[in-house]
Amino acid sequence: MKMRYRFIxxxxxxxxxxxxxxxxxxxxYDPLIDFYELAYLHNGxxxxxxxxxxxxxxxxxxxxxxxxxxxxYVAFFEKSIVKFSLFLFLILFILGIGAFIYELLNFHNGNxxxxxxxxxxxxxxIFLLILLPAFYYQxxxxxxxxxxxxxxxxx
Length: 155
Known about the structure:
7 helices; single chain; mainly alpha
């Protein structure tokens, strides 16, 4: 695929991630948004419905994951990268949602920042920012190795 079309595809998918962030309050149930915008200074713990919060957090994570996998596919056109990334996202989700539930259950101890960062890691496509340059570097390294081998073979 031409670089121009890849750029357009990645731009459109990135635009979807931006739209999710822009409309997060109307798309997802998340009482922690208001809590972290200053309410934690004045009020006690926020009131929330745990099942609804977990379902919405999971939906947002998987929606971001789907778009992130699309970006990785458009960037590299390798199904193996998408499959491996999906496996990594699944592990991240299991560990992240476990940590999120643990932080929620221990929220009354005043540990607000732990919950904040775990939640942030789950609802934002931060993992994409790690995987994209990692796969790019791996591809560059692989190409250099192939060039070295072919130059040795031709010598």
